[in-house]
Every structure is written in structure tokens, then in C-alpha cells.
Amino acid sequence: RYAQRKLPYRESFIAAVIYLFSRGKILTPKNRFYHLRDLKNGKTWLLPGLRAIYHTLNSYQDRITEQFFDNEYIQIGEKDTVFEVGSYIGGSTVGVAEKAAHVYAIEASPRNARCLRHNTGDLENVSVINKAAWNETDTVEIQYGIAADDDSLLTPDKGSLKKTTEVPADT
User: Whole-angstrom Cα distance, residue 55 to residue 171?
Assistant: First the structure.
């Protein structure tokens, strides 16, 4: 067993580009976000960071959809309406939207909601709501994590950017 070495940003980006290109995808940075284009189907994902690449893979979407939305307890039907709280960038939302009549994708983080809107923009049965799910109608403070998947109402687990923003909250 070996210890994994954390690659500097530039090396991480180059490794991601090579890996994705070998799978028919092109990754380009743009305004502190990334665009990931699938050369086979033309779909473009907007990503808040390199770690989000995993959420765009069909294998991830299928596994999450099956694990959380198509099991012995939950089966989504074509007439169902789904409220997905904490939709992140839409990796699972896309799979759920294939099964449900409508999906309300709720994401508190403004930077993740921006990606979510882009990534589900071609789906007529998805409504993105940039609010926090809370026990009362109010505003709450989101703390930005170093990685976008760590934006939180709580202290980010993997480190904070020391930047916050107020977002609307609703029940």
C-alpha cells in the first residue's frame, strides 16, 4: 500500500484532462468554473471544481439513482413529483428526472445552484430552487468550503474559504 501524494493544481488539471479526453470528454476552465463536454452526445456540464467530475459520470448517476431513488423502499413513477434537497450540481437530479413527472432540485449554495441550473437546463421537468431547506422561512448564512461540495450551513469539513453569503431559507 502506498500513500497518495496530493498533486498541485496544475498537475491535477492536466491529469484530469488526459483522463477525460481518453473517455471522449473535453475539460476547459472558464471563470473559476470548468466546462466538461461529452464528445459523443454533446452534453456540457458546468462544474465548480475538479472534484465534481465524478458526479457527471453515467455510472455515478445510475448508482445514486438506484441506491436512493429506486430500491425496496422508494420507487419513482412517471406521475411522481420529487423534492431533491441538496442537489449539488445535478448528478442525481438527471437520473431522477428520467423517472419522475417533475423534480424540484433544491440547493442552498449559490455556486452549486449555478452549476445545477446549467446542468439541468435542458430538462423541462426540473425546477431549480436556490434556497436552503430550513425549519422556518428566513435567511441563513452559507459558508463556502475550499471545495464546492463542502459549502454548508455548518463549518466546512475540508476547510473554509472564510467567505459567507446569506441565502433565503424556507420550509
Answer: 27
- Identify the pLDDT of residue 6: 52
Alpha-helix residue ranges (DSSP H) falling in 22-167: 58-69, 91-99, 110-120
Residue linked to cell 467567505: 163
Q: What is the full DSSP assignment across 78-119?
A: TT-EEEEES-TTSHHHHHHHHHSSEEEEE---HHHHHHHHHH
Which of left, alpha, beta for 123 (phi over 0: left; psi -120 to 50: alpha)?
Answer: beta
1, burial (CB in 10 Å: exposed 0-12, middle 13-18, buried 19+): exposed
Taking the whole predicted model, whether its pTM rises above 0.70 is answered as: yes
Non-local (6+) Cβ contacts of 76 within 8 A are 69, 70, 82, 96, 99, 100
pLDDT digits (tens, 9 = 90+) for 93-124: 998 999 999 999 999 999 999 999 999 999 99
Q: 27: how many CB neighbours lie within 10 A of its CB?
A: 19
- Cα-to-chain-centroid distance, residue 19: 20
Using the 8-state DSSP alphabet, how is residue 47 labeled?
E
Distance CA 109, CA 87 (A): 10
Q: Three cell numbers at 164?
A: 459567507
